[in-house]
Amino acid sequence: MRETVDDASSVAGDNEPIVPVAVLVCVGTRPDVRVLEATKKLELGRTLVDDDRVSKEHATVRFERGAWVITDRGSRNGTFVDGERITNEVRAHGTAVVRIGHSVFLLVPDGRGYADSLADGGEHVIGPELARLHAQVTRLGTSPTLLVHGESGSGKELIARLYHSSGPRANGPFVAVNCAAIPEGVAERLLFGARKGAFSGAQDAAGYLQSADGGTLFLDEIADLDPAVQAKLLRAIETREVMAVGANAPVAIDIGIVAASHRELRASVAAKTFREDLYYRLARAVVHLPPLRARKLDIARLVVREIAAVDRKLAAHARLIETCCVRPWPGNVRELRAAIHQAALAARDASRDVVRLEDLPENAGMPLEAPSAVSAADRAAATPASFDKPAILAALEAANGVVSAAARSLGLHRTQLYRLMDKHGIARDDQ
Fold first, then answer.
1. Among candidate residues 263, 243, 256, the one with its CA nearest the CA of residue 282
2. How far apart are CA 251 and CA 233, in angstroms?
3. For residue 420, is pLDDT > 50?
4. 31 pLDDT exceeds 50?
């Protein structure tokens, strides 16, 4: 469990000091990973990063009374906090994303493990949050059951495979089952198997539990398991035997079971949709997988890795990494990988060697929203084609050069305004 950080002198439960850090993740298109202790005021400028868009004395950051204080020092190209240009000084809680010029930093209140995580040069995609979880799961490999809570797409199956490889049945099979995808009425047959003649057309067939004998059974989205089957699953776990449909005698099995759900199972128990006794049997060991938005270093590294998977000649623009670190990614790793893959293909098809923010699908990583009442015709009528150069320049001037604010005043998305600026030859001063 993550401790609350009140100040730089806080101490973790394991007596390791909690030290706030600034993590540099890129300079321009180059991954440049460094950890900078931020117990005192930290100067961000040209002496720190080799970035020609950074001023000599660009900004300062300090951690005080549980919050980051970021100050722009009159820089030429501005200081951006969580994607927005700041004026003078702002306070930010939790992990903040700061960009100066083409350099991106993560300001992290709890810096434990970041130096170790960056020791590999940034190629291995696992930040300290996930590293701590991996260590915990490895220790729990001998537990007969493990319950994993985590959002969809956050990597629950990878945790289940780690449990499998860490335990005494690592050489056995790993069988993954999505309970939400099991058709109604067939869960018992699929899980426990069937014997010939048990029902019309039935043949001898091993179920998932027997197929996992000697290994690990991963039951994803177990909250969706047919309630009528939950009692039989509980008995199989307790007796270590499985009774196939139509069988006269049970068959002994030796398996580890990992159950996972994106919903809190305790709430399902309280709602009487999940058996209390089965919950306590599964929850002998419980881990919570943090969502991707809470693992911003992983986001930065995944962006670089996924782009390289499309073409190693491609590189990520700093503003792409900045934006990806800021967005919440409700679909987690699954959504990020798909979006970055699409962006990399767009850059390659355009014969560019840098993947820019404009290549990213417009709503990628954004919160899910109900369909807008605005019709397609209305949206088409509001496209930016009608905005001429003087109108754009006036909006930018009124917004003091802040593109996101200028875009809002014009009723545009920021990426649409950037396209118009490119079309009219307007320089992007905040690139």
1. 256
2. 14
3. yes
4. yes
Distance CA 406, CA 369 (A): 23
Distance between CA atoms of 259 and 243, rounded to whole angstroms? 20
Q: What is the pLDDT of residues 112-148, one digit of tens each?
A: 888 776 665 544 557 888 988 999 999 999 999 999 9
- Distance (Å, whole) CA 59 – CA 48: 11
CATH class of 128-288: alpha beta
Q: Is the pLDDT of residue 200 over 50?
A: yes
| Paired sense of beta strands 59-64 and 21-27, if any | unpaired
Alpha-carbon distance 382 to 319, whole Å? Answer: 26
Output the 3-class SS for the chain.
CCCCCCCCCCECCCCCECCCEEEEEEECCEEEEEEEECCCCEEECCCCCCCCCCCCCCEEEEEECCEEEEEECCCCCCEEECCEECCCEEEECCCEEEEECCEEEEEECCCCCHHHHHHHCCCCCCCHHHHHHHHHHHHHHHCCEEEEECCCCCCHHHHHHHHHHHCCCCCCCEEEEEHHHCCCCCHHHHHHCECCCCCCCCCCECCHHHHCCCCEEEEECHHHCCHHHHHHHHHHHHHCEECCECCCCCEECCCEEEEEECCCHHHHHHCCCCCHHHHHHHCCCEEECCCHHHCHHHHHHHHHHHHHHHCCCCEECHHHHHHHHHCCCCCHHHHHHHHHHHHHHHHHHCCCCEECHHHCCCCCCCCCCCCCCCCHHHHHHCCHHHCCHHHHHHHHHHCCCCHHHHHHHHCCCHHHHHHHHHHHCCCCCCC
Residue 162 has pLDDT above 70, yes or no: yes
Helix 389-398, helix 414-424: angle, nearest 10: 130
pTM, full prediction: 0.77
Q: Mean pLDDT, to the nearest integer, of 86-111?
A: 94
Write the CATH number of the domain with boundaries 21-120: 2.60.200.20
In angstroms, the CA 338 to CA 64 distance is 38
Is residue 6 very low, low, confident or very high in pLDDT (cuts 50, 70, 90)?
Answer: very low
Burial (Cβ within 10 Å: 0-12, 13-18, ≥19) of residue 52: exposed
Q: Is 385 exposed, middle or buried (0-12, 13-18, 19+ CB in 10 A)?
A: exposed
The pLDDT tens digits of the residues spanning 304-344 come to 999 999 999 999 999 999 999 999 999 999 999 999 999 99
Lowest average pLDDT, out of 10-14, 101-105, 155-159, 308-312, goes to 10-14
